[in-house]
Amino acid sequence: MSTPSPRKLITFDWAMKRLLRSKANFEILEGFLSELLGEDIRILEILESASNKESKRDKSNRVDLKVKNSKGELVIIEVQFDRELDYLQRILYGTSRVITEHQKESQAYATLVKVISVNILYFELGHGTDYIYHGTTTFTGIHDHDKLELDLRQQKLYGKIQIHNIYPEYYLIRINNFNRLATTSLDEWIYFFKNEEIKDEFKAKGIQKAKESFSLLSLSEEEQLAYARYQDNLRYEASMVESNYGLGRMEGKEEGIEIGIDMGIEIGIEKGIDMGIEKGIDIGKLDIAKRLVKHGMSIEEAAAISGINAALLSS
After folding, report:
1. Is position 257 within any domain?
2. Which of 44, 67, 269, 278 is deepest in the core (most CB within 10 A)?
3. Is 299 among the domain residues?
């Protein structure tokens, strides 16, 4: 008996643009964030800002979704397909921008919003073997190596226990590094991100709701066409990136070969000239020594005066 093929699901990035903004689907997003952050997340609303306005490039390059949870924290979710060497600086800029967007001029610094940046990456970023990285801010003593802690007054002011709870947090999910079976509930979500498949036995919070809502067959004909266009845009963008990258490598290699040949010729000419000069000098010395011997000087004396080996005159 053949195993039925899995039902075709839409990708998570497209769902963020079209489906997850609906309150009816908050359960899906809450499920993923709860598994990632290790706590029960409740979403109050989807927020709009300058950072997630759509443009032609945004549709095929990155997706931003900004949500507010029940603790008043803001969570940015971004899917990135193209290579960006300065991506780490870009997510720093993104969190800083969100903080300033939500801070009024008259408000004290203690009211700064907490931002969590979740990045789902389909390209190689940095060097590491893991597929999930978590970044926080801590302060460590240079001499005693202790961690700086909030005192009781600061804890009351901020409503936080630890210093890192004040500052932005970053999650980097490197999809290409996930090459294993889903052994945890969080793995089940990452398996879906990579394979666009949700197995019946998956138990992660919200994931079976995603399987139901993300079915391509459940979309209207108009939405199916929009999704097909989106996938075409992704493939075109990926092709352009890879083509430009490959062309750049090829052109760089060809230019390097040309430069190497030119340098080799130049060095060869210089070396040849040097060798020719040295050989000419040696021949001149030998000629002088022979003339001295011809005029009656001993071989040893002629060699000494000319600065050559006496054996050359004896041969």
Report:
1. no
2. 67
3. no
Helices (H), 172-220: 185-195, 207-213
Greatest pairwise CA separation for the chain in angstroms: 116
Q: For residues 76 and 93, what is the distance between their CA atoms, to the nearest angstrom? A: 12
**pLDDT (tens digit per residue) in 109-133:** 888 899 999 999 998 888 999 999 9
Tokens describing residue 173: 């999910």
Q: Give the chain's domain count.
A: 1
| Separation CA 168–CA 113 (nearest Å) | 9
The tokens for 181 are: 């079976």
Residue 168 within a domain: yes
Residue 186 token pair: 């969080």
Nearest to residue 56, comparing CAs of 211, 312, 216, 240?
Answer: 240
Whole-prediction pTM: 0.69
Take residue 225 and report the two structure tokens written for it: 């066409």
**Residue 269 lies inside a defined structural domain of this protein:** no
Residues 139-190 have pLDDT tens digits of 999 999 999 999 999 999 988 899 999 999 999 999 999 988 899 999 999 9
Domain that residue 115 falls in: 12-218
The number of residues making up the chain comes to 315
* Helices and strands per DSSP (H, E), number in the chain: 10, 6
Residue 144's SS3 state is coil
